[in-house]
Amino acid sequence: MTRVLVDRLAIPAAMACLLMLALAYWWLDNLRHELFGTALYALLIRHLVANWAWFRNLGRGRYDARRLAILVLHAVLIVNMTVLLVTSLAISQSVVAWLPLADIAYLREIHWFSAYWLIVIVGLHIGVHWRRIMALVATSLRLKASPLGEISLRLLAVLLAICGAWSFTALGVWTKLTFAYSLEFWDFTSSVSPFFAHWTGVIGLFAVIGHCAPRLLKRPPRSPAATKFHRTEGVQKWTS
What's the total number of domains in the chain? Predict the structure, then answer.
């Protein structure tokens, strides 16, 4: 596996898996929960380093509505991850329990609410970059575009959105996102696999939304020379 595939596919996929494992707090003990979270942030650092060019180019080029929306999404993601990290350090009972930080009760609530919102934002983040993800997969598997493949992917996206909407309701995600209190928790004594399947569906739902929403914000038309440069630059970027 090349370095590009590791940085662009393997590490983000591992981060998503760790995030869902961390959500299964009542299935795991606290130590494993914190270890999964620590591993998630370790991979996040690698992810940021691999994508440092994005930060370096923030001051370059023109900002249309689409690029501005994506910038806001990434800013919210950074803020959310920061809040999750700070509250993790404050309420830690295992990995960094030695830190002299006050374990305030409401910080635990903020930590959980932040984690649930992170699922939504991660889904949107995946959707925004879906074309790049598919381009990498197609290149690595040497797949060629076809009308039948395009139709199949669109039907799969519709199915994923429907399943994700069902999972959104089954997990009571809206209650969790609105800071409302609920006594409903997943019963891990009866089943485990559906828990991860439902959260995967929720991420998929917001990935579909993240993929479709920016396309409504049309880019200004490029000149033929600019289009040619953009395509050449993209090929060099993903093959370097």
Answer: 1
Q: Do residues 204 and 130 touch, judged by C-beta distance below 8 A?
A: no
Which structural domain range is residue 38 located in? 3-239
User: CA 191, CA 182: separation in Å to the nearest integer?
Assistant: 20
The whole-angstrom separation of Cα 102 and Cα 225 is 59
Report yes or no: 76 and 121 within 8 Å, Cβ to Cβ.
yes
CA distances from 46 to 11, 19, 41, 144 (A): 8, 16, 9, 31
CA–CA distances in Å: residue 99 to residues 35, 96, 111: 16, 6, 17
DSSP string, the chain: --HHHIIIIIHHHHHHHHHHHHH-TTTS-HHHHHHHHHHHHHHHHHHHHHTHHHHHTTTSS---HHHHHHHHHHHHHHHHHHHHHHHHHHH-SSTTTTS-----HHHHHHHHHHHHHHHHHHHHHHHHTHHHHHHHHHHHHT----HHHHHHHHHHHHHHHHHHHHHHHHTTHHHHHTT--------TTT-SHHHHHHHHHHHHHHHHHHHHGGGGSPPPPPPHHHHHHHHHHHHHHHH-
**pLDDT tens readout for residues 86-144:** 999 989 988 888 877 766 778 888 999 999 999 999 999 999 998 888 888 787 777 77
